[in-house]
Amino acid sequence: MLRRAVSQSLRLSRHQASRPVSTTSVLFNGEKPADAEPATAATPEGEPAAADASAAPVDPLVKEVEELKAKNQELNDRLLRALADAENVRRISRVDVNNAREFAISKFAKSLLDVSDNLKRAHESISIEELHPDHTLPAIKTLHEGVVMTDAQLQKVFREFNINQVGAVGDKFDPNVHDALFEYEDATKEAGSIGQLMKIGYLLNSRCIRPAQVGVVKATKQ
To answer: How far apart are CA 48 and CA 121, in angstroms?
Structure first.
């Protein structure tokens, strides 16, 4: 009987050893199988999640592009302002140069206007009758002709530099180019016109460098 009992005991031990271990009993015992793999969380949107992960690095590039666009716009604006400023400087410089040249000519021309006045007075001081050969010496006649020719040459130089005379009897009075010394009545002339010319005026281009000194006709009292 002892031999039978030992034989049954050995069979029972071999049977228990061959039984598989229940995972349920392991979990209840707080043990974890050594070869168990960690469970991965299932994503309901598998492919979109992967797409989002790959698209995430694009955001810094987009931001950098926007910054470069803004910087380029700023540089373009600064360039346009710089070009505009440079053009303004060139324009102002040209105006300043032209004004300086015109002022220099104006100052020089004014200094010659009195010379022209004196030449005119010189040849007007001798009347036509006095120039007759029977009433004057040939030397005086030659001198008069030289004065007239000199004045004519000076007026030609004036015209070459756009210096022109202004003011004549019969012209309408213009305060921009005429200096009224007096007024007088004259029924034979139009009121408001120049009746007498005391000193000729001059224009440089369109600017008056010396107004003409005149006497103006005023309306006749009835």
So the answer is: 107
pLDDT digits (tens, 9 = 90+) for 23-39: 444 444 444 554 555 44
d(CA 17, CA 100): 121
User: What does the alpha-carbon distance between residue 51 and residue 53 come to, in Å, rounded to a whole number?
Assistant: 5
Confirm if 180 and 148 have CB atoms less than 8 A apart: no
- Paired strand residues for 204: 163, 207
Give the strand pairing for 178-185 and 212-218: parallel
| Residue spans of alpha helices (H) in 125-203 | 138-160
Comparing C-alpha atoms, which of 112, 124, 125, 216 is closest to residue 165?
112
194-199, strands of its sheet edge to edge:
178-185, 212-218, 194-199
Which amino acid is it at 209? I
Taking the C-alpha atoms of residue 67 and residue 167, their distance in angstroms, rounded to an integer, is 69
Q: For the chain, what's the residue count? A: 222
Q: What is the dihedral of CA 77, 78, 84, 89, to 10 degrees?
A: 170
For residue 182, give the nearest of 201, 196, 202 by alpha carbon.
Answer: 196
Alpha-carbon Rg for the chain in angstroms: 58
* Tens digits of residue pLDDT in 158-209: 999 899 999 999 999 999 999 999 999 988 889 999 999 999 999 998 889 9
Residues in a beta bridge with 201: 166
Which pTM was predicted? 0.54
Cα distance between residue 171 and residue 178, in whole Å = 10
